[in-house]
Amino acid sequence: MQDRPSFAELLDAVREFLETEVAPQQSDHRARFRTLVAINALTILQRELDREAQLVHDEAARVAALLGREVDIPDDPEDLRALVGELNAELARRIRAGDVPEGTLEHLRRVAAAKLAVASPRYLARYET
Amino acid sequence: MRRATGGAIYSGMLSIEEEYRVLCAAFDAGVRVPRPYGYLPDVAGRDAFVMERVSGETIGRRIVRNPQLASARAVLPQQMVEELARIHAVALQEVDFVPGPRTPPAVGAYLDGLREQLDTLPDAHPALELALRWLREHEPPGHGLVLVHADFRLGNFVVDEHGLVAILDWEMAHRGDPAEDLAWPLVRAWRFGSDDGPVGGIGPVEPYLERYNELTGRRISPQDLFYWELAGNVRWAIGSARQGLRHISGEERSVELAVLGRLAAEVEYEVLHLLEQVA
Q1: How far apart are CA B89 and CA B85, in angstroms?
Q2: Please, is A74 exposed, middle or buried when counting C-beta atoms within 10 Å of its C-beta (0-12, 13-18, 19+)?
């Protein structure tokens, strides 16, 4: 096990540095914009760290159920991502062939909302008002 | 001056010389564009063209927000349709080199293009498949073939306090359905976070559509506009994913492009939101 700072704490240290020391120093507006984008990227990663494992697990279970497939959900995160990729490809093929499973639209909306909860929560909130 | 970049040219994009000729045709048709001055075949090894320097704001987020541009926002949607009516009146034989179908309706070719681009993405996108399926099953009647700008939206306009000064970035121009251009500024990404109306985030749809139909004698319906808005969102969902891939593949390393790859989910969500309205 690594000593502290933890993964999250180290990530936060970099974000704080960019926010308080780098961004205010940028006079060129393009460079300043890119610094803000980089800060946003780190903020995405912080949210991802907290939630992604659960989200991918849930997505695998849901898409498998939608397709009527019984799958063992792997513990290894890479295997899990590969499985979700494979199931999504199967869903895409079925949609293209006109064999759209019941509940597909609602399923896809939930998956996209789960992605946005990590990547862009403020955008998602605009749909709720 | 606009000079060739030497980078990859996507299929369907105009060369610098062709873009210059489209700009000239638009200028001759009275469209608000920077006055074209001339095409230069060799500027330090690449071709280029020179046009009038115009001043104003181009950044979408500022156009929808800046208090000094409130007067521009009040007139911009009407000016946009007036310009579209002029662009769509350019005689096609003057720009016969632009890509696109030779016979209407254009929607089939447009959907083929989306299919082709979607197939170049490495991962499956079931949400976009679902939208393409709906679009295939609901093809609207065409509205003829015209010169479409194909990136007609805030961000490609020069705007000052009186409104629209000039329309830039003609490299995507092609033969297509006029509703393609009319609906593109409604795509949520081009509202730049503003909710003051679907047209560019700054205006309502009804007067915009009515004025266009009045000026052109066409009868584009709200349903047609919805169809092309959905198609436009699918196009931009694919576009965002491709931006992310440009970073990942090393074609253009950039933190902005990398984050855009993640923000493709925003466009996908909007696609599904629109599909829910017709489900």
Answers
A1: 6
A2: middle
Give the amino acid at A72: D
Rounded Cα gap, residues A62 and A111, in angstroms:
9
Share of residues in chain B with pLDDT > 90 (%): 94
* Main-chain dihedrals φ then ψ at residue A8, nearest 5 degrees: -65, -40
Instruction: Classify A23 as helix, strand or coil.
Output: helix
What's the pLDDT score for residue B279?
A: 87
The reply to whether A79 falls in a domain is: yes
- Tell me which residue range forms the domain holding A14: 7-126
Cα separation, B102 vs B89, whole angstroms: 16
B2-278 in CATH: which number?
Answer: 3.90.1200.10
Q: Please state the domain count of chain A.
A: 1
Query: Could you give the residue ranges of the DSSP H alpha helices within B120-221?
Result: 126-137, 178-183, 205-216
Total count of residues recorded for chain A: 129
- Kind plus residue range of the DSSP H or E element containing B2: strand B2-3
* Contacts (Cβ under 8 Å, ≥6 apart) of B68: B161
ipTM computed for the complex: 0.94
Give the separation between CA B191 and CA B158, rounded to whole angstroms.
16
**How far apart (Å, rounded) are the C-alpha atoms in residues B248 and B258?**
7
pTM as predicted: 0.94
Instruction: With respect to residue A87, please indicate whether it lies within any of the assigned structural domains.
Output: yes
What would the pLDDT profile of B233-261 be if each residue is shown by its tens digit? Answer: 999 999 999 999 999 999 999 999 999 99
Contact B124 A44 (CB under 8 A): no
Mean pLDDT taken over chain B? 95
Query: Taking CB atoms and an 8 Å limit, are A95 and B266 in contact across chains?
Result: no
| A2 located within any domain | no
Residue A1 in domain: no
* Pair of tokens at residue B225: 């506009």
Tokens coding B209: 């559509």
Interface test mutation site (partner B, options A52, A84, A96, A118, max chain B beta carbons within 10 A): A96
pLDDT digits (tens, 9 = 90+) for B22-74: 999 999 999 999 999 999 999 999 999 999 999 999 999 999 999 999 999 99
Phi and psi at residue B73, to the nearest 5°: -60, -30
B269 with A100: Cβ contact below 8 A:
no
> Could you give phi then psi for residue A21, rounded to 5 degrees?
-110, -40
